[in-house]
Amino acid sequence: MNDDQLLRYSRHILLDEIGIEAQERLLASRMLVVGAGGLGSPAALYLAAAGVGTLMLADDDTVDLTNLQRQILHRQDRIGMAKTESARLTLASLNPDVQFVPLPRLDTDAALDEAVSQADVVLDGSDNFATRHAVNRACVRHGKPLVSGAAIRFDGQLAVFDTRQPTSPCYHCLFPDGENVEEVRCSQMGVFAPLTGIIGTMQASEALKLAGQFGTPSVARLHLLDGRTLHFTEIRVPRDPDCPVCAHRAHQAR
């Protein structure tokens, strides 16, 4: 860590739980953020500000006027620009030391597998169940912790899955693929702008704890937030021993 980095991250280093050792782990870490939208925007900003060494950001969309209400990576003059390029411009101006890897196409199992295999932690801010389940399967295959977030209307949720731990569920244990689950998107139902910031920032917090190896990541707990009242509900999520995705996991606890 050079002198500039010691100064930039000094408020982290002052924390006994982090210090130089954990900050150096963050500087050496690689994070994959799936989605550069309402959740991925605040998550990526805080990961970059906190000094994550390499930030991979996957999104195949372009910036639209309707995004600007909550997707704080993007700007008015970037409408029509690829979200990954808009994100690169914002994050480079925030912290040029972060290595940014844009992934404008992550639509095949092979591409997803490659990206997940290179990451220390994966943050999922996607807006559909097909992508969430594909990301989960890749994380289980490669033994990577997954920080999952969602926000719709005034309702947010956060969960951390780490199948390196024998008792941890995976996303499929909580939301089985193939069940008759209603697909809702903010383009149809709306979303309260600051709610995406709250959940996305919580995702960044959990990812930093996992990569920096400090604190207690919220594994096997589903946090539900009612944005109308700011009321949190926490639910313990058990592992499904018959889960077709993670029952025969090859990765064990660290």
Automatic annotation (TrEMBL):
Q: Which GO terms describe its cellular component?
A: cytosol
State if DNA damage is listed as a keyword: no
GO molecular function per UniProt:
ATP binding; molybdopterin-synthase adenylyltransferase activity; sulfotransferase activity; thiosulfate-cyanide sulfurtransferase activity; ubiquitin-like modifier activating enzyme activity
Enzyme kind, highest EC tier = transferase
Q: Which UniProt keywords apply?
A: ATP-binding, Nucleotide-binding, Transferase
Q: What Pfam families does UniProt report for this protein, alphabetically? A: ThiF
**The protein's role, per its UniProt record:** Catalyzes the adenylation by ATP of the carboxyl group of the C-terminal glycine of sulfur carrier protein MoaD.
- Name this protein carries in UniProt: Molybdopterin-synthase adenylyltransferase
Give EC number(s), comma-separated. Answer: 2.7.7.80
NCBIfam families of this UniProt entry?
PRK05690.1
Residue ranges occupied by any THIF-type NAD/FAD binding fold domain in the UniProt entry: 9-245
Q: Which domain of life is it from?
A: Bacteria
Decide whether keyword Calcium is in the record.
no
Q: What InterPro entries does the entry give?
A: ThiF/MoeB/HesA, ThiF_NAD_FAD-bd, Ubiquitin-activating_enz
Family as reported in the entry's similarity comment:
Belongs to the HesA/MoeB/ThiF family.
Q: Which reaction is the catalytic activity of this chain?
A: [molybdopterin-synthase sulfur-carrier protein]-C-terminal Gly-Gly + ATP + H(+) = [molybdopterin-synthase sulfur-carrier protein]-C-terminal Gly-Gly-AMP + diphosphate
Q: How does it assemble?
A: Homodimer. Forms a stable heterotetrameric complex of 2 MoeB and 2 MoaD during adenylation of MoaD.
